[in-house]
Amino acid sequence: MTEINLQDVNAVVQIIDTVTARGAFRGPELTGVGQLREKFAAVLQAEAEKQQVTQPAVPAAEAAVNEDAPAEEEGDLSNLN
Fold this sequence. Notes:
Elements: H1 6-21, H2 27-54, H3 60-66
Helix pairs in contact: 1-2
C-alpha cells in the first residue's frame, strides 16, 4: 500500500488553492472543498509546530548569520517534507 506523506498533503492544498483561484469549483462545491483544505492545512500546521518544538535552539552566532536570509512568508508550509 502506498503511503501519503506531508509533501502529498501540501500538494493537495496547493492544488485546491490553484483550481479554486481558476474558478474550477461551483459555489455549492466550495464548502466541501474548503473543509477538506482546512483539514489538510491543519495537519501541515501541526507538523510544523511539532518540528519547531523538537528542533534544538539556534546558537546566537548562527541566528545572527540567518538574520540576513530572506524571511519566509507566514503560513507558507511548502518546505515541509
